Amino acid sequence: MKKLQRTLSLPGAIAVSVGGMLSGIFVLPGLAVGITGSSVWLAFLVAALCILPAVLSKSELATAMPKSGGTYVYIERAFGPLFGTIAGIGLWLSLLLKSAFSLVGLSAYLYVLIEVDSGLTKSIALLALLAILLLNIFGVKKVEKTQLIIVTISVVSLILIVFLGFNTFDSRLTEPVFLDGNSGFITGVAFLYISYAGVTKIAAVAGEIKNPEKNIPRTMIISLFLITSIYVLVALVLVGNVEASILATDIKPIYTLFQTIGGDYFGYAAGVIGVITLMSMANSGVLASSRFPFAMSKDKLMPSYLSKISSKFLTPVSAIITTSVIIGLAILYLDVVKIAKLASAFKVLMFIFNELSVIVLRETNAQWYKPSFRSPFYPYVQIFGILSGIVLLSYLGIMPLLSVFGVFVLGIIIFIIYGSKTDRSGVISNYGFLSFLFKGESSNKDESRPVSSNLSDDISNINAEIVVPLLGDETSTEMLVEMASSINDKSKINTINLFEVPNQTFLEAIDLNTPTSESKRRRLEKLGKYKNLNISYESIATHDVANSIDNITGQSKCKWLVMEWDGREHAGIFVGNPIGWLLRNVNSNLALFKDNGVRRFSKILIALRPGRRNQYFIEVADKICQHFGASLTLLHIISENERKTSALQRSSEEAISSTKSKSELKIVKSSNPVETISEESASYDLLVLGTPEKDNWIRVLFGAGEDRFVKMAACSVLRPVSYTHLTLPTKA
Questions:
Q1: Maximum Cα–Cα distance for the chain, whole Å?
Q2: Exposed/middle/buried for residue 597 (C-beta within 10 Å: 0-12, 13-18, 19+)
Q3: CB atoms < 10 A from the CB of 10, how many?
Q4: What is the CATH number of domain 10-370+378-419?
Q5: How much is the pTM?
Q6: In degrees, to the nearest 5, what angle opens at C-alpha 134 toward C-alphas 132 and 137?
Q7: Could you check whether 451-595 and 596-732 share the same CATH topology?
Q8: How far is CA 322 from the centre of its chain?
Q9: In angstroms, how far is the first alpha carbon of the chain from the final one?
Q10: Could you tell me which CATH number the domain at 596-732 has?
Q11: What are the pLDDT digits (tens) for 238-293?
């Protein structure tokens, strides 16, 4: 079985993790000052130390189970579906509540930029929530890639203000250090706990991370160190520049800090940074939190409607809407302090479960539990995490404690209604007199779900010379595959049907055995038998088509990547056209085929410019001619004032003399090569544009992101792209 396409590198994973934590510093430090005093910077540091056991534990769990799902999966594997249900609800609520206070904070920063009534805070937050809801339902692609830019801007801005802030630091403003003694300090630590929630977020997409056994622990530890450093330094600068009485009720402390140090212009800049950062964080929170009811519904632990995927947008619409409704209710009926305390309480509870899961899985010696990273100082680290978590919970107040109890009750009720007949069980199910709490109906079934569907039983080991990605908009799958075969006749062809899935949807949730996919499989199987072609077929779900194609070609060590193409190099930030990226990054020869409906090739035209790789393109064109039994015409377009053509004619005739197909040479004088090729193509069935990838003619080829030669051709077009480090195809 082919595994998920892992496309997330270490820097990308760190960006995701850090990005999930930035909202805390933009909203909570001022309110925390009102709880603990100027020791808020120390509260951030202690909160990070309390988080560290969860980071180490989750790193271990993620390397043992590097699949998408994160904490929900780990707890269910250790304790069974009942506690998996409780964990899923707790995680869901913690993440959506964090989105809620991000949206409230966003409205406060928006006041800096536009004059609105302060009473409209909740209305603005709800409008922003509506926009995020629509983005997630529509599954807008590429938007998530802007998060790296936003994170970079935010981090650089915070580092800048730290340097400036120490120059204006006034130690007199830091009194009192502890506003309410030890009790206030511990409460402040618990209050700020949610600020670090995103540090383990990367485990939820572990199935998409490159080299997970190394990169997951590195991501969590590096991210925790980076964000702790930023939090501590910013908080220290904050209390040394702004009076505590001002901060105590301030939900836009970064604006206040920037404005105090640098004046109005700095303040406006902070307002812009705050709005875009908190909007991004809220969107990320909705995306992440909506996955939990969706995944639980797939596991039959919640109502089935929550797992339904829109056939148009491929997003879990019901899960997204339900999540957004609860966020809206939190914004309407809770203030920022209550939202943050509830979010912290649920997150503390989940991290306690994580640490308990490590203990259970180690002590029961589960045979399959083989993490590549093991938490140091086991079990003392886990015991510290559990005990510190219990202490923090007790200091958050009665409402968070009751809410935690409510999660247990709600989880039990939901499990009784929906999950009692599940066929899964936890590792602990065979131990203890209360083992029935951890068991499902049966434990004999395989839990795994396919993420690929193959013709062959050993598809993952294919060393195909030609890879043909299918993106779903091909004019004719059979024609594309046969064209691929003609380029390097009798080669192994690995045909891959790619499903690009929005980040809102788990890859595992996609049904790859669709009628369309089955139709392609059947037709390609028939084509292989009829044409005596060696064709394999598989379906793969991915969040990033371009990276997946690159990974697949690297794994199979292919000579050729063949794709259908409409002539566009790229299509901007919101539309996913992988061609531009592949032209720059793919590690194979690339052939782009524009199918204009021609099904019989008897006359093939190849248009060249003088270049050192021309013989390469001629050999490719000759192979195609041999495959289809076609004649070949070599076309050269020269300027109208060009007089010396004898040398070009001799070299061209020499080049085509070695071809096995019937060949001829045609030299045309023209000042408009695009128009000339368009006119000439009307007399042919296939146009081969053999232009070296880095030729200066690229300026002519691409106008407004389009290959104008391809767009204006009257016949089908093949554009091979040559990479000089690769070997030429073997002659037949």
A1: 97
A2: exposed
A3: 16
A4: 1.20.1740.10
A5: 0.71
A6: 110
A7: yes
A8: 22
A9: 34
A10: 3.40.50.620
A11: 999 999 889 888 888 999 999 999 888 898 999 999 998 888 888 877 877 787 88
